[in-house]
Amino acid sequence: MTTTTQTKTQSLLAPILGMAVIGLTVLLAVGHAQSATLHDAAHDMRHATGFPCH
Amino acid sequence: MTGALIAGIAAGLLAAVLHFAFVQSYILLGEQYETGELVHFQTPADHATEDHAAADQHDHGSHEHGDEPSVLQRNALTVGFTVLLYVAYGMLLTAGFAIASQFGRKITATEGALWGLAGFVAFQMAPGMGLAPELPGSAAADLTARQIWWWSTVVATGGGLALLAYGRSILTVVAGIVLLALPHVIGAPLLDAYYGYAPTEVGAIFSSRVLGVGLAVWVVLGWLAGRQWDRGAAA
């Protein structure tokens, strides 16, 4: 029983971690990355959602 | 994962609609001050023209110049990046649901809406109390310093709210309150002097609208993500 629970917990850890990492990466790219192209493209959204922009 | 995508896309599209209904005209108006096309403190006659600038921009895009990217392209990018942003927020929320479920919490649509509210406070309200949503044409401190404070505030506020919501002892309540207060006690990077070009009235309504739209979209995002999670968990 204990073994089953541990396996379930471990198998869920990877998708949770994966989703959090992808979410954070996208958040960094669209909200904070300072590449000129990204900044210009995301400009209005950044201003309108409270990110520090330029 | 699919639930987070569906909730994020739907909330992102709602955000885009609200953005163009309430926010975009003020970004364009702010930019007219930023570029010097409009100047704060003009004669009353000039001010009368300013009053209508936002509406004109919104309705016709009449002040766009030929050498800038087309309005359509610019707005399409805004829609795309807004959807991406809320998909990212939806994924972070859903990862949070998964962690809470590991601790035996049942996430429903209603609980999701509360998480959405907390997400709004952590990602927009609390950072906005130090760094108000920036209107183009306003001045702000060093970008890197602001970004560091923004992230620190998001993490501290998110952690503080989680401790308050799920903590079971007086110690976690105290720790939660300390975490919530800490970024504001330390204080956001501010300017020694203010030299923004845009009128404070425009900045004020812009900030209010950004926060209002953010609140609405975050609650919808949380509700949708919670509903998707509940359905997936039940299946």
Account of the protein in words:
The complex is a heterodimer of chains A (54) and B (235). With 54 residues, chain A is mostly helical. Helix content of chain A is 80%, strand content 0%. Chain A has two helices and no strands. Chain A is elongated and about 40 Å long. The mean pLDDT of chain A is 84. Chain B folds into two domains: 2-25 and 66-139 and 199-234, no CATH class; 141-190. Chain B has helices at 2-34, 44-60, 71-102, 109-130, 143-166, 170-186, 200-234. Chain B has seven helices and no strands. The two termini of chain B are 14 Å apart. Chain B is mostly helical. In chain B, 77% of the residues lie in helices and 0% in strands. At the A-B interface, helix 1 and helix 2 of A face helix 1, helix 3, helix 4, helix 5 and helix 7 of B.
What would the principal axes of the Cα set say about the shape of chain B?
Answer: flat
Please trace the helix and strand order of chain A, writing H or E for each element: HH
Mean of all residue-level pLDDT scores of chain A: 84
**Count, helices of chain A:** 2
Measured between the Cα atoms of the first and last residue of chain A, the distance is 55 Å
Which shape of chain A, going by the Cα principal axes?
elongated
**Helix percentage of chain A:** over 70%
Tell me how many strands of chain A there are: 0
Task: Provide a compact summary of the structure.
The complex is a heterodimer of chains A (54) and B (235). By secondary structure, chain A is an all-alpha fold.
What structural keywords apply?
heterodimer; A: 54 residues; mainly alpha; 80% helix; 0% strand; B: 235 residues; 2 domains; 77% helix; membrane (chain B)
